[in-house]
Amino acid sequence: MKKFIALMLCTVLCVSSLASCRRNESSNDPNTLKVAVLESAYGSEMWEKICDEFEKLNGGMTVELTAEKNLEDVIGAQMKGGDYPDVVHLATGREAALTETLIKDEALTDLTEVFEMTIPGEDTKVSDKLIPGFTDTLATNPYKDKKTYLAPMFYSPCGLFYDADLLEDNGWKVPESWDEMWELGDEAKKKGIYLFTYPTAGYFDAFIYALLAESGGIDFYNDVMNYKEAVWDTPEATRVLNIIKRLADYTEPTTVANSTGDNYLKNQQLVLDGKAIFMPNGTWVVGEMEDAPRREGFRWGFTALPAIEEDRYSFTFFEQCWIPKEAKNKTAAKEFIAFLYSDKAAEIFASYGAVQPISDITDSLDGDNKLFYSVYEDGAKAVMGGFAATEAVAGVSIYDTLFESINSIMTGDKTVDTWKNEIIAASDKLRDNLK
User: Fold this and answer.
1) What is the CATH number of domain 32-156+317-376?
2) pLDDT tens, 56-72?
3) What are 5-15's pLDDT values in tens digits?
C-alpha cells in the first residue's frame, strides 16, 4: 500500500512538473501573446473584449491577459525573474514610476514602425488615423533619436471641473482670466464657498503644464521640459509659482489633509457638495464619482485654465502602451498595438468611456464626454508631453520637487522662493544627465 501511495505521489508530481513545463513553453510560443494592462476606472472588461477581437482576426493566436489595479507590483516582480509581458498598458506619472524606470534604463522596444503598419482588419495605416501631434512629444519619444517608444492611448483633456448648476444659481460666469478667477473667489467666499480644491498634489502636473504654456508659450514650455539653464529664474516661471501660492488663499481648508491616496475622493466630493467650485482633474473623474451623492441640480462643467495673458490652455493627458525590450513575441505585440487604433477597438474603448486619439472620434461622443472633448473646439489650445528622460540621479525627482511640494505651499510651510530654488537645483542636476 505504501509503495502504491508513493508511486501515485510520484506520478502526480511528475504530471505537475510536466504541466508547469508546458506552461512555461507556451509563454514563449509565437502564437501566445501576453498582454498586461492597468485595471483603471475603465475596468478590465473592455480589455477582455479587445483581446477576443484580436484573437478572431488572428486564428490560432491566444492572448493571455493580465489586468490588475496594482499592475506594477505584479509584473514588476515577474520581470525581475525574467518573465516579461509582450505588451504593457501602463502610463507614466504613477507613483510606482515603473514606466519611467524602464525609460531611464532604455528597456523599451522602438515602436516607430508600428505607426506605418496597416491596422489589422482595415486598409488604413495607423499614422493616417492618429490625431496629429500625439507622437511628437516627450511622452512618446523620450530620447533625442526621433523614435517612438510609447504608443499614445486614451486621451483626456485636463482642466478645471465644476458644477455648472452652482455657477448658474449664483449668477456667476466661468472666469476667462486669472483676474476674473480671483474676483469669483472673493464673491464665493461671501457665501461660504471656496474657489478651489484638488484631489492630491500630483494632480497639479497637468495644471502647471498648462500654466507654463500660458505664461510663456509652447517654446517656453518645451524649455522647461528639457531643463534649460535658468528657465526657472524667468518672470514667466515665477508668475506660475505665484499663482499656485495665491490659490492657497482660496483653497478649501480640509484639502491638504485629505490629499492622499486614501482620502482624495473627499476633496472631489467638495465640488459635488457645492463647498468648492473648481478642481483640476481629467475626464475619468465622472466615472470615479458616478455613485457619489451630490447637490440637487448638479451638472458637470469643464473649462480650460483661465488665461494669464491671451491664450487659454488645456493639457492633454494620455496613457501609453509599450513593449518591453525583453518581450519574447514582439511581432505579434506590434500587431496588437496597431489593432488598438482600429475602428472596432475604438468603438469598444469608447463604450467604456476611454477615448483613443484618432481622427473624428469626438463625432461619436455624447453627454459629458461631448462637453469635455469639445474644449479645443471652443478656443483652448492643447499642450502635451512631459519632462525629458534623464539618467537616474540619486535623490532627485522633478515630479516630487515641483508637484508634491505644493501641499507645503498651501499650508505655508514652504515659501515660493524656497520652492523655486529647489526646482532650480533639481532641474540643473537632471539637465546634466539628459539621455
Assistant:
1) 3.40.190.10
2) 999 889 999 999 999 99
3) 333 333 333 33
